[in-house]
Amino acid sequence: MTRPARPTPNPSREREGDSRAKPVTSPDIVLAAVTGAHGVAGEVRLKLFGDDVDALKAHKTFNDGQLTASKIRSDNKGGAIARFAEVPDRTAAEALRGTLLSVSRDALPPLEEGEFYHADLIGLPVVTTDGAAVGRVIDVANYGATDIVEIAQDPVPEKGPKTFMVPMIPTAVPEWDDKRLVIAAEFAD
Prior knowledge:
By secondary structure, the chain is mainly beta. It contains three helices and twelve strands. It has a six-stranded antiparallel sheet. A six-stranded mixed sheet has the order 10-9-8-7-12-11, with no helix packed on it. Strand 8 and strand 9 form a beta hairpin. The two termini are 28 Å apart.
């Protein structure tokens, strides 16, 4: 369920960023990450975790007011180029590499039924439809088709993988809420 041109970090099953990057406090939602400098005037390249560049343009300040966007445009490659008032030159832009751009959850519209922010899934306990405890969600990735949750098994098996992935499709994940994520028993094997 995608909502194009909506000022949200694709709440419906697309990228919100690598949860293992730099931690952001819970009430904040990550919209993009700085991947490097662009040119010599202090602009930065951004990897977008939302619907599109318009979702990012809807916000003027990021990271609790530490960065103020003066210009954001598409790079025509699925990312964006941004200029921040606090970044005067290429050296300052290069220093931002790896910085996550976040906004307060309060600045985003409410979620519709069946939508979620990746940050809401990470850390949830996982059980099967049979009621067996499986582990916890440690990451949400998207490789193009749909979101995929990565689950750390608990207890950790002596042999074999310590984590496994399950697609966020109704047959694999019939339900979730703010307390747990339920996966079909056949996906836990």
